[in-house]
Amino acid sequence: MDLELSPDQVMLDDIAKAMFTGRPRDVAVDTELLARLDADGYLDVLRSAGPIEAVLVAERAAEAVVCGPVVARVLVAPLAGAHDLPATVGLVAGPSSLVRYAGHCEAYLVLDGDEAHVASADDVEVSPVASRTPYPMGRVRVIRGESLGEGSGDALRRAWQVGIAVETSSMALAAVAFAAQHVTDRHQFGRPIGSFQAVQHRLARSHSMAMATRWLGRRGAWFSNDEFITASAATFACMTARETYDNTHQVTGGIGITSEYGLTDWTMRLLALHAELGGAKAHSRQVARARRAATT
């Protein structure tokens, strides 16, 4: 197994990091950035280059907490077989589920039992919902939509699980790096907080879980037709999200929960991802079903 990125992939990763760094975080959707990504072909990189390349773009977008559904458009939609979509795509799990970027998307991918549907912004009704997460949230009622065909529901679910893992890993790694800098700079009892073993163990555990989630997400993107792999990635991502939230806020103390400090840019988004698509219980049930199906 080759775990090293190719020179072209390294270049793409560097370009994506440069593009996303420093983008505004006080807008609902960064339309200028999404228009640039669309014009330059980055939103369709999966079709032109492959799933790992799409993951690299998605990872950098999540790490930089780009304001917009980049991961849904660059990774989830094409993995699910939905192409030629507008730049902003929302993911809808059901009529009562919360939808990130609801009301700010030009199209929606809707999970409806065994089928997935594509609905335009004119084909849905959006009810905004106040949320403590940094995402604009709402409930989406689908009036009509175009089916992606038989079995497309499972394909969308698997692709969505990959997206959850990819986003979670990148945000968790960024949160851990932010917290690590805090415990390096912050001194108590005449020494950096980070010199205490208990603090080191918390951040080391979160970092190792985030890296494991990263590779599970990449594997899921490559084997997006394997429900056991994609559901396992999403299940572990939920564990990582909760562990990272708890540990990074534990070591940063009271300042970590303030919006001004910046840690919540990642951790509050992690909580939203933790609950998406039914959360850890739903993903773990799919792991069990997939394993049982493979052994019978």
UniProtKB/TrEMBL annotation:
Gene3D superfamilies: Butyryl-CoA Dehydrogenase, subunit A, domain 3. Coiled coil: none annotated. GO terms for molecular function: acyl-CoA dehydrogenase activity. Pfam families: Acyl-CoA_dh_1 (PF00441). Keywords: Flavoprotein. Residues 163-289 form the Acyl-CoA dehydrogenase/oxidase C-terminal domain. InterPro entries: AcylCo_DH-like_C, AcylCo_DH/oxidase_C. PANTHER family: ACYL-COA DEHYDROGENASE (PTHR43884), ISOVALERYL-COA DEHYDROGENASE, MITOCHONDRIAL-RELATED (PTHR43884:SF12). This is Unannotated protein. It comes from freshwater metagenome. The lineage of its organism: unclassified sequences, metagenomes, ecological metagenomes.
